[in-house]
Amino acid sequence: MLAHLPPVLRELQLPLRLRLWDGKEVQFGPDPTVTMVVKDPGLVSLLVNPSLDTLGAAYVEGRLELEGPILEVIRVGDALTEALISSEDNGAPPEYAAHDKDTDAKAISYHYDLSNDFYQLWLDREMVYSCAYFPTGSEDLDTAQAAKLHLLCRKLRLKAGEYLLDVGCGWGGLARFAAREYGVRVFGITLSREQLALGRERVKAEGLERQVELELLDYRDLPQDGRFDKAVSVGMFEHVGHANLLGYCQRLFGAVRDGGLIMNHGITARHPDGRPVPRGAGEFIDRYVFPHGELPHLSTMVAQLSLAGLEVVDVESLRLHYARTLELWSGNLEARLEQAAQLVPEQALRIWRLYLAGCSHAFQKGWINLHQILALKPHPDGSHELPWSRADIYA
Prior knowledge:
Helices cover 41% and strands 17% of the residues. By secondary structure, it is an alpha/beta fold. Strands 7-6-5-8-9-11-10 form a seven-stranded mixed sheet. Strand 5, helix 7 (173-182) and strand 6 (185-190) form a beta-alpha-beta unit. Helix 3 packs across helix 14 and helix 12 (319-334) runs antiparallel to helix 14 (346-365). The N and C termini lie far apart (64 Å). Belongs to the CFA/CMAS family. InterPro entries: CFA/CMAS (IPR050723), CfaB-like (IPR048027), CMAS (IPR003333), DUF7884 (IPR057206), SAM-dependent_MTases_sf (IPR029063). It comes from Metapseudomonas boanensis. Residues 12-76 form the DUF7884 domain.
């Protein structure tokens, strides 16, 4: 079996050991840090032309075991596939279909209704499931997530008494924070019943029922009477789909008053046409992690916001911040694997181990990005209410 492996594997000098089902081993470099245990003989032929999707799927399905630190597993797997297959960066642009409410609701439920207790194992204490912000790079996760929430609120120039719309509110961490720290009223929406239940519990526990209202609602059903002063959308537009982006932006436009601000914080694609992450990583994410997820390029998102009548006034990349966030999430999960195994099925735990570490690697390598895009709805005369500089954000 081992004779059929491509000679280039030995030339790579990877810190990788291959162990077969019969105990035979081969090393592809000195001092292996990762061991790939092949339990299914049919997988040997896969190593001739492996992709991150096929390797990941084999691990998720239990046909392959991976031994070693999970971040190192990802790094070695990336080097292996890069040497043996093309990057696929020159492929044809993908085709996108419109999302309907039922499709989106099922996709959100698949990912977010897994287990609240599972997410609590590795998220920060507020359960903020999005990119943190590290002012110096040395902050712990709780501090960095609080800094991110402050950054969002300051960019929105929140003032006491204002009415904030939170689209894709998750477990309500941002909604509660904005109400508590900035004195605003918040209306948050989600499609996850598990998130909604825990979010409402936490709102009640903090005595914020008069300020924070969380509802199970699709963004397409948002009121269009301009009742909100500001709107924030964190980790949401990745689920909307390219074909629906303009409608999504139009719903945000209709929800806020003239002069209102809208913050879109989300993952963006490396390529302008939004093609998936290369060498099968994008296919793995779509199959196992975020079904029907589509990452728009920054230029696409700016264009759709503009077409909806909004004016983009500020853009910031937090790519390396997300790499660090995911590294900390992954470390938290790895430290609690025994507890996690009691909360979710084995296959789900395998998926999440690869997903968190793999996405940290993807952001570190620049395969994907994270942008905060601040837009405003101008007054009819073209005026707006923003300060003349950004100094107030960091004061």
